[in-house]
Amino acid sequence: MAPFAGWDMPIRYPTDILKEVAAVRRSAGMFDVSHMGRIEFSGTNATAFLNRTLSADVASLRPGRSKYHVICNEAGGIIDDAIVYRLSDTHFLLVVNAGNFTSVESWLARQAVGLCSVNKEVITGRTGMIALQGPKSAETMDRLCPTSASSLRPFRIATTEVAGVPCRVARTGYTGEDGFEIMPPAERTAAVWRSLLEQGAVPCGLGARDVLRLEAGLLLHGNDMTVDNDPWEAGLERFVNLDSPGYVAGAALRKIRDAGPAKRLVGLRMTGRGIARHGHPILADGRRVGTVTSGTHSPTIDANIGMGYVEIQYAEPSTSVEIDIRGRLAAADVASLPFYKRTA
């Protein structure tokens, strides 16, 4: 266990991280992600408000659907990345990272000044959140739900029962695998967890989650992007809608788009000995050209992998670079993301 954003979080369970990663890639693993911030918005101005503050085109979402996006400040810096779910015409759920919850809430509160017909309710403490991930997650859910969970399409959300407990269930996740995020009432979350355990789901901690998301090329805010990064240099420009009227970051992001990024987040595959870690310098042509943001050993592809920002002229896949690992230079190649992609 370790403290994280005010929560006690499991790094691993009594098996080990490699077995947890294998469970998610081959069968089904589950994560307690109740620490994620959950905020509901409702009211006649909720759609316009979220379109003004999020990079997603919320107005185009149909009820029951969701979008991944980034939350940017007026300068185009990434405050957080998040998923917004449209529950009904005037009711939305925003799920944000625990470590950024205070920053996001403060940002949204400032943008909401004067909009009386937008209601905001933080439901993090009233609900739990369990991520069930892996190729057998759908059949596991089908055994526990009265209706077919496997018929729920990706990035959809519905209300159903899981092991007799009323839950919101979304077909989303952070591992690169098929999966579900289950949101039961807080007091019944442990019962849902035990039911999943009885169905063979393997408990997984933050260690496995970090390996899985890096294999899948998924960014971690605070490591691979911060408020000092914009969506174009982070490779997230496809999740930005610049056409929403009044979008607060629109003017800044259009300037960033037109100028083009000076650096770019890339994948790194080690060809020399060692693992690139957060903060390690990236060198090329005898000088520093970037910085590692994340790194680990991937058991799935049996390689040492990472991500980092490099000057734009070094961002092409197969470009040779070196990583300064505590004073020792180790060879690496720039690689396309993701490192791993499921086949079905």
Helical proportion? Answer: 10-25%
User: Averaged pLDDT, please?
Assistant: 96
The domain tally reads 3
Largest sheet: 6 strands, mixed
> In sequence order, what are the helices and strands, one letter per element?
EEHEEHEEEHEEHEEEHEHHEEEEEE
Low-confidence stretches: none
Number of helices: 7
Q: What fraction strand?
A: 25-35%
CATH architecture descriptor text of the largest domain: 2-Layer Sandwich
Verbal overview:
- The chain has 344 residues and is of the alpha+beta class.
- The chain folds into three domains: 122 residues, Probable tRNA modification gtpase trme, domain 1 (Gyrase A, domain 2), CATH 3.30.1360; 89 residues, Alpha-Beta Plaits (2-Layer Sandwich); 83 residues, Elongation Factor Tu (Ef-tu), domain 3.
- It contains seven helices and 19 strands.
- The strands form four sheets. A six-stranded mixed sheet has the order 10-11-12-9-3-13.
- Strand 10 and strand 11 form a beta hairpin.
- Helix 1 crosses helix 6.
- The longest helix has 11 residues.
- It is globular, with a radius of gyration of 20 Å.
- The mean pLDDT is 96.
